[in-house]
Amino acid sequence: MLSCTIRKWLTLHSQYRIVGLSVCLAAGFLLSILSCALYGNWWPLLVVFTYAIAPLPNAIFGQYVSADPLADVSSSVADFGRFLTSVLVVSGFGLPVVLSHAGIITSMAMFMSISGGVLVYGTIIVYSTLFREQQSDF
């Protein structure tokens, strides 16, 4: 059933894909902002900044990746970009946990912030995957 749903999703027009992804992205940001507003503590808003900054290292250092996928050569600059991206993604998930453990935010705010992060990062991953496939078909 899941694979049938994925096939349907992949066959939709790109306009519907963009609308669906924008709804998921908006829901993720809404959960992150509500985790701050409902509980009167704005510390989880720091996680939103990691959403915005996380794709930047891959975008900046991604041009140093070899064009040949079978090449055994690895660029240290591209690897450093991937490392920075992973640090930002992990800190986006870890920061609410640390803030909750320290008692700065409530556990419900932590869950809302993490679920918002899952939606935002998932949207970024699905967007890059769907439109990378679409560009490679040409």
Category by helix and strand content: mainly alpha
User: Percent helix among the residues?
Assistant: over 70%
Give the H and E element order: HHHHHH
Mean pLDDT: 82
Radius of gyration: 18 Å
Count the strands? 0
Number of helices: 6
Low-confidence stretches: 134-138
The main β sheet shows up as: none
Approximately how much beta-strand content do the residues carry? under 5%
Cα shape: flat
Our measurement of the CA-to-CA distance between the termini, rounded to an integer number of angstroms, reads 30 Å
Q: What is this entry, summarized?
A:
The chain is built from 6 helices and no strands. It is an all-alpha fold.
Give a verbal description of the structure:
The protein is mainly alpha-helical and 138 residues long. It contains 6 helices and no strands. Helix 2 (14-37) packs antiparallel against helix 6 (107-136), helix 3 (45-53) packs antiparallel against helix 5 (76-101) and helix 5 (76-101) packs antiparallel against helix 6 (107-136). The longest helix has 30 residues, at 107-136. The radius of gyration is 18 Å and the shape is flat. The two termini are 30 Å apart. The model is unreliable at 134-138 (pLDDT under 50).
